[in-house]
Amino acid sequence: MIKIFDFLWLPQLSIQSFLFASFLGLITITLYRNFIVPYRKLSKLGINVSPPMPLLGNMLDYGSTNRHIAQVKRQELYGNVCGTLFFHIPNLWVGDPEMLKIITVKEFSNFANRFSLTKPRPPFDKTVVQLKDQDWKRVRTILIPTFSTSKLKGIMPLITDAGDNLIKTMSKAEEEGRAIDMWRTCGVYTMKVILATVFGIDFESKEQEKKLTESAARLFRNTNGVIQFFSIFLTPLFRMVEPLLGGNLVKSTIYLAKTAENVLRERRRNLKNGIPCRRDILQQMIEAGDGDKLTDEEIIAQAFIFLIAGYDTTANTLGFASYSLATNPDVQKKLRDEIDSLCPDANSIDYDTLFSLPYLDMVISETLRMYPPAYFVNREAKEDITINGLLVPKDIMVSFPIYGIHHNPELWPKPNEFIPERFSPEEKAKQIPCSYLPFGGGPRNCVGMRLALLEAKLALVKIIQNFELKTVAETEIPLKLRSGTTLSPFNGAYVGLTRRY
Ligand code: HEM
């Protein structure tokens, strides 16, 4: 009897023990490889490391929508250079302007690429954001002339149309006496600009306009950065599962890509037959490059990345600027005086005038300092390199805490006050290089910066020509922020309007 009992239970016990020991072993190995090793890698550098959680790292520091606050707090606690874990990936945060200058400019060849978390799928693997080294250089070189002053002047009529539409929407809100969310309203404007200029879409009807605008908006409506990330890069599993779960992201992406493909095909046909084409960014991409041209696949990839990189960032900037003007009436008056004297009506808005309004430029610069939509960027270290005595190891993710840098009181006294005068020519001359990075830095900076500034300036001039912005009950003061894929207003940017004429 005892023998039988032994026979039945001992092996069972030993299997249980074996499974338990294996489970413990697996956990220990996983923790060791994905927590202890990367943590040690950072600690060995002699920098302060923010205490991470096993496996999650510092992902939840200060909450998932307060990553901009985490940058400021880390700066206060650990200094301008410190370490965190992005899940298990060691992340070196560099908020020191001197080091940033070396990373972005002097040692550019060692930090030319962004850190890749996943391998993107076609066509997103062909975007200028994702490409590396020579492949990146080739596409970026072809793209640069697309955003030149003369090319941007050519698309002014398309941006002006979208701007007129923005004023119509605002007029309706003013007539109805209701507050308006300038963040969402300006989102419609920046979406129209990208669809018209980059996707080459000439809306044939209101219905088509609505369908296309809604499809593009769907790529952004979900503020969950992770879902957006998967939808953007369309990992195979996501591509299969999302439509089955009733989602529209994959469908919208395919619809937009198909529309752009059709426009491209028609443009190529027209070009062959000598039929003049609309002068937009899509056309510039088709014609750009001498011997070496972008393929259709590459053009569509860039169109998508321009939509992703350009829609939200510029809309957020306009939302933040409208809020800042409403809450700072003195600044708004100064801007209004400048616009009234140098650009008094719709007919006087042209490219050169927009770029010669000094106070407008100062207001936008201060908006981007206080509320940088791209609140962090990163680079990958190609080789081990020592910068100002700090060893930056090969393959490490190097991040720039843009929000933290812009709110560092040593660089920007009274960082939480909206003071456009910080960007007067005299003050600008005193600025420490790399202490202001709303568009990133060095040769890998934002390729769409001029388009973004043109869009923002044109919209703000039109807004100020037509309305006075004021705070109302719906205006949230101070404005609550959300750090997701970009830094945006958490609950919108509501202001009241009074028509000026
Ligand atoms: C206010 C609006 C915008 C802001 C604040 C902004 C900011 C940035 C930042 C910080 C970067 C990373 C730079 C770096 O790594 O050093 C970037 C890259 C980029 N941006 Fe923008 N951006 C804006 C608008 C636009 C627009 C309108 C477009 C295109 C239509 C655009 C296209 C891109 C592209 C393609 C890159 C990647 C460049 C490369 O890797 O070579 N951005 N942007």
UniProtKB/TrEMBL annotation:
GO terms for molecular function: heme binding; iron ion binding; monooxygenase activity; oxidoreductase activity, acting on paired donors, with incorporation or reduction of molecular oxygen. Heme binds at C446. One of its GO terms (cellular component) is endoplasmic reticulum membrane. It is found in: Endoplasmic reticulum membrane; Microsome membrane. InterPro entries: Cyt_P450, Cyt_P450_CS, Cyt_P450_E_grp-I, Cyt_P450_sf, Cytochrome_P450_3A. It is a peripheral membrane protein. Its cofactor is heme. Belongs to the cytochrome P450 family. Cytochromes P450 are a group of heme-thiolate monooxygenases. They oxidize a variety of structurally unrelated compounds, including steroids, fatty acids, and xenobiotics. This is Cytochrome P450. It comes from Trichoplax adhaerens. The lineage of its organism: Eukaryota, Metazoa, Placozoa, Uniplacotomia, Trichoplacea.
